[in-house]
């Protein structure tokens, strides 16, 4: 799994939320790094911020989804830009899901369960405790 966000706070939040799953998670601070990492390593899912310096999340998503080597990677946009137009742009770029920030834990866990079937049982047990 890859988490791409220029905010250290968001990366720390995602690190804490993903810890119970014991995933192999990498982190990138910008779109250029994310594209390079996605080409170098196979990821099941990428959580991708939209607003970043340099290449934005829409551009990153489009590059990932247009490359045959990374096309099957699930891309989940994670952004404070959550208007219907922003979600349409994400869909147009090829994203598989679009979550608004701040993302609720239930929504994040449901998304993890959707794109990472091996994590479904852990996600459901965490949701049951809530």
TrEMBL record:
Keyword Aminoacyl-tRNA synthetase assigned: no
Keyword terms of this UniProt record: Phosphoprotein
Residue ranges crossing the lipid bilayer per the database entry: none
Stored InterPro entries: Bact_response_regulator, CheY-like_superfamily, Sig_transdc_resp-reg_receiver
Residues the record lists as 4-aspartylphosphate modifications: 49
Lineage: superkingdom: Bacteria
One protein family per Pfam: Response_reg
One GO-annotated biological process of the protein: phosphorelay signal transduction system
Record domain Response regulatory: where: 1-116
SUPFAM superfamilies assigned: CheY-like (SSF52172)
SMART domains: REC (SM00448)
Protein name: Response regulatory domain-containing protein
Organism: Noviherbaspirillum autotrophicum
